[in-house]
Amino acid sequence: MKKALRFLVVLAVVFTLAGTVYAETYSIGTNPQGSLFYSTGMAVSKVMVEKTGQQYRVAPYGGSSTYIPLINKGELAFGCANGGETAFAYQGTEIFEGKPNKNVRMIAAYYKNYGGFAVRNDSSYKMMRELKGMRIPSDYTAGRVFHYLTEAILAAEDLTHSDFKLLPVPNFVAGINMFIQGKVDAAYIPMNTGIGKKAMATIKGGWHFVDFDGSAAAQPKVAKVLPSSRTEELSPGKMREGVTVDPTTMLIVDFYVIGGAHVADGVVYTLAKTMHDNKSDLAKSFGVFNRFNPKGMAAKHPTPYHPGAIKFYKEIGIWKGS
After folding, report:
1. Which among 23, 95, 214, 310 could bridge 144 via Cys, Cβ 3.0 to 4.6 Å?
2. What is the pLDDT of residues 32-66, one digit of tens each?
3. Which CATH architecture has domain 114-253?
4. Per-domain residue ranges for the chain?
């Protein structure tokens, strides 16, 4: 009887320890390997493991519209998402029509991302409107936010997807692969992504971004399609692959680390603090973090912030409410 009792005690300890180990492993949902979100998640995971000893790992999915509901359900701790899609998710609109994700919480804005439609360098197209009637990827069934990213660019030119020959794809990586294969004439490429670099190296002569209307009159059209998005003119330069014409208008979206309301306050506090204090290490892991502004981590958003993040931002004096 005593042996049986001891066995049960040992078994209980083993299961308790196993549960502890599991609880200390935090997954960050990202888009597929080769995407900007994947590289971002890898950098954050690496720094968190090195600086805190907590176990983080990247969990790639077909697109953020796939893993945001998992965060909402408490089945995934964290994820990378842009500001527009997170607003859709929390409010239950557009991509998430009738399915509000009220357990999603903002944690940190980490940098703004640039993107646009790209064409081969041997093509004659210079403006997006010149591509009307051409072949482009569409649908983005597993990464639906890319429908809105591309539609926002088209809206600036008073165009819609219906003005093109559409080839459905599950996500933007698949769209760029079709571009590489010559199956589409243009494709949306987020600047400085792994898959974009693959396209540059694979396509004979390379590719470049085409320009589109970035005037003040175009801004409301862009923001109407994708909340928090806007445009900016860029000149060619380091870390601006594909920008060959001075200037070239690019679409901007703010990127965030988001999490579930179920994640402990202390865990989120540590994540926010570690990111804030280690910009250089994040940038060493993924160069795009050179654009990371720690003072802007608490950017206002219609989705509420996690209490753990709010606590840290109040301590360092950057919390202004949201």
Report:
1. 95
2. 998 889 999 999 999 999 999 999 999 999 888 89
3. 3-Layer(aba) Sandwich (3.40)
4. 2-113+255-316, 114-253
